[in-house]
Every structure is written in structure tokens, then in C-alpha cells.
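Entry — protein

Goal — C-alpha cells:
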Amino acid sequence: MEISISVTHDLATFIQRLSNIMKIAETTIGSTVAMSILPVIEEASPVDTGYFQSRWRPGLVGIDGGVSFGNDAPYARVLEEGLYPPPRPGGKTVAYRGRVYSSQAVGGILSPFVENESNINRITEMVYRSIMEFLGRA
């Protein structure tokens, strides 16, 4: 009976430690990936004054949900979802897939990024490297 209790206690301690390590790994890996992707998203952002480009913030969702990015510029949704009024000749907007986008970000900013297979491959590689680096430090 004592062995069983001792094993149970040791197992519970091990599980708690493993859980703590996983939380640290999630934050570390998520932060690494987010900060690696952020400059790419900023670069893909249309620039007039630079305000929109400067307002991107990564938001860690966790291992299940990945990494999210938000932009609190008042017109961020218009840029991302193509909600401009119909384009005018010589204007700064273009019609694309039934919507009207900035000519500097046709299709939005995030959607084209995640639809690009090479970007997904880069993210996968970043996650893999981050995990391996973390495990080397663990």
C-alpha cells in the first residue's frame, strides 16, 4: 500500500512538473513563432502614414489554437476584409473576388499570408526549430 501511495504521489508530482514545462514551452514557442512572423505581416501591410503597419500585435492562443494577430487601427477590418466602397479610376483600391481592397493589400493581409504554402512551410519549420531548441534547454 505504501508503494502505491508513493508511486501515486511521484506520478502526480511528475505530471504537475510536466504540465508546468508544457506551459513554459507553449509560451516560449508561441512567442518565438509570433515574433518571427510579425515583421512579415507588418511588411505586407499597406502604408500611407504607417499607423496601420505599426498597430499589429501578436496574441498567443496556445498550442491548440496557434498564434493570432490583431490590429487595432479603426480601419483594420476594412483593409483585411475588402470592405471599401467601389473603386474609382485612379484610386487606391481594387476589386478582387467580389470585394474592394487597398491596392497595396489585395486580398487583405493575413488571408494571403496563411494561404501561401511557402509561408505555412516556414511556420512549420519555425515551430519545429523552436521545439527542438526548447527541448535542448529543458
Remarks:
- The beta strands are 56-62, 66-71, 93-96, 99-102.
- Confidence is low (pLDDT under 50) at residues 1-7.
- The first helix runs from residue 2 to 44.
